[in-house]
Design goal:
Elements lengths: L1 E10 L3 H12 L5 E3 L13 E2 L9 E2 H15 L2 E3 L3 E5 L5 E5 L3 E10 L3 E3 L5 H5 L5 E2 L2 H4 L7 E5 L3 H11 L4 E5 L9 H8 L4 E4 L2 E7 L6 E6 L4 E5 L3 E4 L3 E3 L30 E3 L11 H21 L3
Parallel strand pairs: 1-2, 1-8, 2-5, 8-19, 10-17, 11-12, 11-17, 12-13
Antiparallel strand pairs: 3-4, 6-7, 7-8, 9-18, 14-15, 15-16
Helix pairs in contact: 1-2, 1-7, 5-6
Amino acid sequence: MESEKVSILIIGSGPAGYTAAIYAARANMKPLLYQGIQPGGQLTITTEVENYPGFPEGIQGPELMVHFEKQAARMGADIRYGLATKVDFSCSPKKVWIDDEKLIEADAVIISTGASAKWLGLPSEERLNGFGVSACAVCDGFFFKGKEVAIVGAGDTAAEEAHYLSKMCTTVHMFVRKDQMRASKVMQDRVLNTPNIKVYFNTETEEVLGEKTVNGVRIKNTKTNTTQEIPVSAFFVAIGHQPNSAIFHPFLKMDETGYIYTEPGTTKTSIEGVFAAGDVQDKNYRQAVTAAGSGCMAALDAERYLTAKGH
């Protein structure tokens, strides 16, 4: 099997990975970055990004990630297409296999594999993703100011996002699969006491309606077995995120949902020389700008670690 030795390996290519590459390359650490299954990360499936600083007119998500990639490449980062399929963090240097056919040995590893939104799995949801279907109310709610929208979910995130949407949308239709919400009591109370949030319990989404953009949703009450169609301009899915961390599971400390543990105030994981940045270790903020910030931290943490080790 082909193998290669590098000083620093970055796994993943969203805002966290590319920012880590920019900083590491400027520090002359000659980083190698593998882009993973979705080069550019979650931002490549969003359309308009209006909350990233420095773009007063807003920018398309995929275009923003092209800027990140070009900047990292200009600084000298070695950017390649490929997926990390297996790791061994029990030794030094760390071992990472790419596409099961190439072995990379690295003195330091930055994990920035991100998270993936969980979806309901409806063909119409997939077809209209980016055209009124979204997994981020904080990112996309603004575009539906003064409109009626729907959100599906029952946890704290869904409750928070429903409340966020209620401040700018005329009505928020919230669909909860069971007869009660999973959200904390305080979040439930906030939702139930907001006049323009209408909660539908025992409700499943059958179809998102619309040809080119979302114009409605068909729901089914599982108690009465009746269906109804509600006209809405957007459909938000808030049923959780799954961090892309499965291959690191045997080695790194994680929480019960798979978010990688990092030492507070740093990007250090439970294994020396391995750092984690962005959504794979952040379940609270999950924004492009916070991911980029943690990518910067990871590069600085890795640089200090390598210097201390005499690399």
